[in-house]
Amino acid sequence: MPIHSIGGHHYYITFIYDFSRRTWIYYLKHKDEAFKNFKVFKALVENLIGKKIKIFRFDNGGEYILNEFINFCKKERTKKETIVPYNSKQNGVAKIKNRSIVEVICAMFHDQNLSKLLWGEATNVSIYVQNRVPHQSFDKKNLEEVFTSTKPDVGHCHIFGCPIYFHVPMDKRNKLEAMGRKGTFV
After folding, report:
1. pTM for this structure?
2. Which of 76, 119, 131, 136 is most open to solvent, judged by the fewest CB atoms within 10 Å of its CB?
3. In terms of C-beta density within 10 A (0-12 exposed, 13-18 middle, 19 or more buried), how is residue 115 classed?
4. Where are the alpha helices (DSSP H) in the chain?
5. Contact 163, 185 (CB under 8 A)
6. Phi/psi zone of residue 54: left (φ > 0), alpha (ψ -120 to 50 degrees), beta?
7. pLDDT tens, 28-84?
8. Which domains does the chain have, with CATH numbers?
9. DSSP assignment, residue 152?
């Protein structure tokens, strides 16, 4: 991203589980953090599904061709598939996902007139919502439901950027100040 996020991140990396298309997002301050985040993702997903990741498809980015990455995949018996540069047909799922993330956060920023510093929070919301809306490829089931076999509850969802009021504890205000303050939901 051209601007750093509130957390100081400049990049994000998405991992898509091919069977269900469920997506996870991790934030990076530097591209060399991709390997560390891949290991975290791999452990998480293998724990959740009880199976090993067999194939990992990626572009030819420098963060994926480091020796430690290659050695780790060999040790874990994870096949690495690289795609041909500038050929989105080989990795269309990832290209479409990344495009939809950017389109959604742009719409959120323009709708609520928010600072672009909130791109990290906006991408989190985008992924969260995309994982929970019905998908035509899965007979109107959502990606979370296909992944976990249970329908997620979305009753707690609110509009990104909507006005909120939060309680201010007694020790943080005097007797004449309001008990709440106005904020923005992110």
Report:
1. 0.83
2. 136
3. exposed
4. 34-49, 67-76, 92-112, 119-130, 143-148
5. yes
6. alpha
7. 998 888 889 999 999 999 998 888 988 888 877 777 777 888 888 889 998 888 877
8. 11-149 (3.30.420.10)
9. P
